[in-house]
Design a protein that fits this description.
CATH architecture of the largest domain: 3-Layer(aba) Sandwich
CATH topology of the largest domain: Rossmann fold
Number of helices: 8
CATH superfamily of the largest domain: Vaccinia Virus protein VP39
Number of strands: 11
Order of helices and strands: HHEHEHEEHEHEEEEHEHE
Distance between the termini: 42 Å
Helix content: 25-40%
Structural class: alpha/beta
Length: 256
């Protein structure tokens, strides 16, 4: 099991603590994504694959809006959590264990929409690994369909290589919950340590470690175009209301 699987397996039951209200976040992010889909000619009759679904933050909200959602992830721990949350929310989602570097090993069909949100792609620690992932993902999109993903604003972060991210402080009924990350850089790769501090009826501190590669927008744009997309557009938080830059790439139509 690699460091990414271990990170998410270990964090699965606590991932929602990164949010003040995870349930509200699922609805808010679904609205943002639905607007992007609508702008590109898709509605809730579309078939969607969330290929890095985690605990279902986007998949559950979109299923609640009526989308036909299939969700996959490399972490069995997060898939188990997502299944339970989907059931509690009364939504129907097909869940599969799948590595987004090799989606064709799990899926024979193509989808109108494929998403990979919350900085999933920068888990690819080399350019070759990222290209493998992009080729795999684009292959599962129907001609004319779109890929939507979000990554951190590494174009800005690489200039300063910050040693930590600002903390999130959430007031709760029993006290407060603080989450923050420390980053140790080695070139364009950094080790991320996620801390969650629960200072409520008792003090509890959790720690999770993973690695990322700072992926520049132009690199991802070039790969998407080289792997069969006809257009690539970047949308930024001030436009979308989402906390990270979002890329929207349309797969080339057959014969065009």
């Amino acid at each position: 099991m690699d460091i990414t699987q271990s990170f998410y397996d270990n964090m699965a039951t606590q991932y929602d603590k990164l949010f003040l209200d995870w349930q509200s976040t699922t609805r808010e992010q679904a609205v943002i994504l639905n607007r992007i889909f609508d702008e590109n000619g898709f509605d809730c009759t579309s078939h969607l694959l969330d290929c890095a679904c985690g605990i279902g933050t986007q998949a559950i909200g979109l299923a609640a809006m009526g989308y036909h959602v299939t969700a996959s992830d490399i972490s069995d721990g997060e898939l188990a959590e997502a299944r339970e949350r989907a059931q509690k929310n009364g939504v129907k989602i097909r869940f599969e264990h799948a590595d987004f570097r090799a989606l064709s090993e799990t899926f024979t069909e193509q989808f109108d929409l494929v998403i990979a949100m919350d900085n999933a792609l920068p888990h690819m620690l080399t350019g070759e690994a990222l290209e493998t992932a992009v080729r795999s993902i684009v292959a599962q999109i129907r001609p004319g369909g779109i890929f939507v993903a979000s990554i951190r604003d590494y174009d800005s972060l690489l200039s300063s290589r910050p040693p930590y991210s600002p903390p999130y402080i959430h007031r709760t009924e029993k006290g407060q919950r603080v989450s923050f990350q420390t980053w140790v850089w080695n070139g364009d790769i950094y080790q991320l340590t996620q801390y969650i501090i629960e200072d409520e009826e008792s003090l509890r501190i959790s720690k999770f470690v993973c690695e990322y590669r700072a992926t520049l927008r132009q690199e991802l744009t070039d790969l998407l175009l080289a792997c069969g997309c006809s257009s690539v557009e970047w949308k930024f938080p001030e436009e979308t209301g989402f906390y990270q830059p979002i890329v929207v790439a349309r797969k080339q139509q057959i014969g065009l």
